[in-house]
Design a protein that fits this description.
Chain lengths: 523, 523
């Protein structure tokens, strides 16, 4: 097969490790991947906007909050904000700059989420950058089955990929929506699988009280925690979206308040599509996004002072011919970078995404995804949603794309490593240059020999052989190589360890809540 | 067909234009591309190395030049450098920091090359960034014919692509080596086609006196210039490579001196492959590259004070399993960025490349190419070689890849446009946000209507339709879409205008030089 480079163990590589429980050695499948780490982004962010530009967007957002107002379709939120001194007219809430900035200042600039396996704790904020699996597509696509609706088996496959790859730090939303599970109990089945197939940080959809409470309870059980222990520190998180323009709906705010009051993080991510739900100008769309995001953050900080929050960006542009969203565009990149500047201005962790418009994992998918992932790097993003597996503007999750994206994520992690830009005397290597002189080569010199096993990034899905070797071995293209890796991972998957009593308690909880009917489905 | 988005004229788009002579309207083929412009990179470069790191590399390079020395396999160069006060021992030349820095300071930080069509003048240096077609692969590959040796017809096809795309600013080296033309006269036939099929800046290979002199003469004729006019300003350029480690060969230096003395620019690009011809550490490989580059630049500035030069980077790493070069890696990105820091330290224009390791234009090709092109942006590169069409580490030129890369180049050009990050009151758009309020959308508002035709990037090879529309239309993947665009361009190509007397003079020159036997092939 073509990707022996990706599937053959290379015992000499010191970057091996961190794979325990991930791959069964007996079957011959083995993927050399990077060990688990929380990447730290050493680069100065790209700042397209100057100080005056940041002020212009900030003042614009404050103008929106003070003079136009945000609609909260949630009575509890209205009551809280009225109590806080905001001007509440029906669902419309107007808040002054002083109040907003006082509330925003309460938010920590950085926090750590500790899932049931404390070795998988993630730090959100500062220069840290973590990657989340693709979340919420209704469909999946793979090279053999094409596009089809999401189902539970496919959901589990993606959970296995999420657990397997060390460069995926968080098991976010459902990689595909398993429509073969009734919505009233879907969250119970999904969370049971997520909590047993992975030991990484979990997410709760803020889609109704029961769902949120069930997920918090299941995460508490999986961690073997008391209520007090759960409440004492971040163990999971939610992400909420506004309904742009200028609106927050009931269930998202309800869920956010529930988590915030128990000390669990809330990422607030408006979806401001320039030219559709937001101004056609990128800084206008960012201004609207910031206003919507800060409104929710102010609410949460008043209700639960100091609760961990982050601000998200999902600002992109439409295709002006069709009105459909386009992702991974130049405009998307700039909006992400600008939002990063604002996030630092407010001292808030930033979420962005790894996104594309393409329908299949071909060349277009990767130039668009590269654009969005490098924009995440350049913006100083702390949490990258949809970092692996996303296609068709979020309507498809693809296992091949998941594997390909993990290649790019690993390259970003390697790019962050100081070894790639160190300038110690050993790196400048004058003694090796003297030794080799003008007529030798560096393969054999001591300086190379001491370093070659981990001097460079080792790819997983890339084929670096020449054309003839690649062709003689079947001319296997990237999606097929990625497919074989995906099958190898899923077919050889071994779940992380879990105490049997905890597994039983989780199963009992799911059974009891199913018997009670799960969650209402009429919201 | 799938790419009607790319081939249908959209008359409303104000970015139309600059296409005169590029596409025959009568056939129905039309590609909406960006107009010609010299992109200006507004971003602050990414600087992985701090001031001390820049000094460490600089001092390392100076140590190499002063204590190890560079071999010049060119007697004229040795004579010149001896005259300049360098210590010459056999072919080895050692030069002190003061001399090197004095010579480097003679080089202009920026210069303009004016080809036969002055509208196609390119500025090299400062924040300008220009793109050069793929140069020098021995083979071509397309989706229907696979990999095959380069030939003259394919060479001409690539020249047509080079001329057609406004985002390709320079007709660099041969996109494929036309092996069906005898090497003694190949440069004559190739340059005739290059100078008649395109009106963009040309390049001469520094591969022997006759080739260099012929190309200069042909560029002079094509521009309708006297010798004095040709010598008065840059009209073309050459690129030379060192023979790493620590060596410059005869023909490259010979050609460089010939061009420099006639005021024509020389880009000096060492090929320092970390772990093979250079230290396995990236800053070591960059240090060696800088030393080799500055040695040649010092020579040129002593021989022709103030002559336009640039420094190139071609530092990447090998695949440590095979020893073969790998491109578009994280290490490649850092080496490019670091070289950018050094280029600014010396005040020299920078050349880098758009490169990949992949064998076919699939997903891997585009994540690797995106890595290298974004590294070019982040490094402040002024001239991007191989910006469109490169595959298999430079062994293949592909027309489909050419079209795909032009999509990425256009996105970079759009990314540079201030409109993507402007923060004027009209951009912040508070009046539109007020007008639309919480219950409307932005499609119809005046702010959008006034801007929508050119608010966002319009793709050429991307398909932004949803999966079902794309599938119903044949499920055409990116390489096939790119292939159709390539055929449309080539089949409908109309060459730029050229005065008939000049064409005849060029043809006569080629005939005469062929009769004389062309260039010797024994070097």
């Amino acid at each position: 097969m073509a990707n022996d480079s990706a599937t053959t163990a290379r015992k000499t590589n010191r970057r091996a490790g961190g794979r325990s429980g991930n791959a069964r050695r007996t079957t011959g499948f083995h993927l050399e991947q990077m060990p688990w780490r929380i990447p730290v982004n050493p680069d100065r962010p790209t700042e397209p906007v100057d100080t005056e530009g940041v002020q212009a967007i900030h003042k614009g957002a404050m103008h929106i909050l003070e003079n136009i107002g945000i609609e909260f379709l949630n009575d509890e939120a209205l009551t809280i904000l009225k109590d806080a001194g905001c001007r509440v007219t029906g669902n419309n809430v107007r808040m002054g700059e002083d109040f907003v900035m006082e509330m925003v200042a309460r938010a920590p600039t950085e926090f750590t989420i500790t899932p049931r396996n404390p070795d998988r704790a993630v730090t959100i904020g500062g220069k840290h950058m973590v990657f989340v699996n693709v979340s919420s597509p209704p469909n999946s696509w793979d090279i053999h089955r094409g596009k089809r609706s999401g189902d539970f088996e496919t959901f589990k496959d993606f959970m296995k990929l999420t657990q397997f790859f060390n460069c995926i730090h968080i098991a976010g939303g459902y990689p595909v929506e398993p429509i073969d599970i009734h919505p009233s109990v879907r969250h119970l089945d999904c969370l049971f699988e997520k909590l047993t197939l992975t030991d990484k940080t979990c997410h709760a959809y803020s889609l109704g009280r029961e769902r949120v409470e069930d997920v918090m309870e299941m995460v508490r059980i999986a961690g073997g925690l008391s209520d007090d222990e759960f409440n004492a520190a971040p163990r999971m998180y939610t992400n909420i979206n506004s309904v742009s323009p200028l609106k927050h709906d009931f269930p998202m705010i309800d869920g956010a308040l529930r988590l915030a009051r128990r000390g669990q993080p809330v990422m607030v991510t408006p979806f401001t599509l320039a030219g559709a739900m937001a101004p056609v100008t990128m800084s206008g769309a960012v201004t609207l996004s910031i206003a919507e995001g800060l409104a929710a953050i102010a609410l949460l900080q008043y209700a639960a002072p100091g609760c961990p929050v982050g601000i998200g960006t999902f600002t992109s542009n439409v295709d002006m011919r069709s009105g459909a969203p386009a992702f991974g565009t130049p405009e998307y990149m700039r909006a992400t970078q600008i939002t990063g500047q604002l996030a630092r201005f407010y001292g808030l962790p930033l979420r962005s995404s790894g996104v594309c418009t393409a329908n299949i994992p071909d060349a277009q998918a990767m130039w668009e995804t590269s654009n969005s992932l490098w924009a995440a790097v350049q913006s100083g993003t702390n949490m990258v949603y949809h970092a692996a597996g996303w296609l068709e503007g979020g309507l498809i999750a693809s296992p091949e794309k998941f594997v390909m994206d993990c290649e790019v994520l690993q390259m970003i992690q390697r790019y962050f490593e100081p070894a790639t830009f160190a300038t110690t005397p050993e790196d400048i290597a004058l003694s090796a240059i003297t030794e080799v002189g003008p007529n030798g080569h560096y393969f054999g010199c001591a300086h190379t020999q001491a370093r070659y096993t981990d001097a460079f990034y080792s790819p997983i899905a890339s084929d670096w052989r020449n054309y003839e070797a690649w062709e003689a071995d079947g001319a296997v293209d990237t999606p097929e190589r990625a497919h074989r890796i995906y099958r190898g991972i899923v077919d050889n998957f071994e779940p992380p360890t879990m105490d049997e009593s905890i597994r039983e308690e989780l199963a009992d909880y799911v059974a009891r809540r199913k018997a009670e009917g799960g969650a209402p489905t009429d919201f």
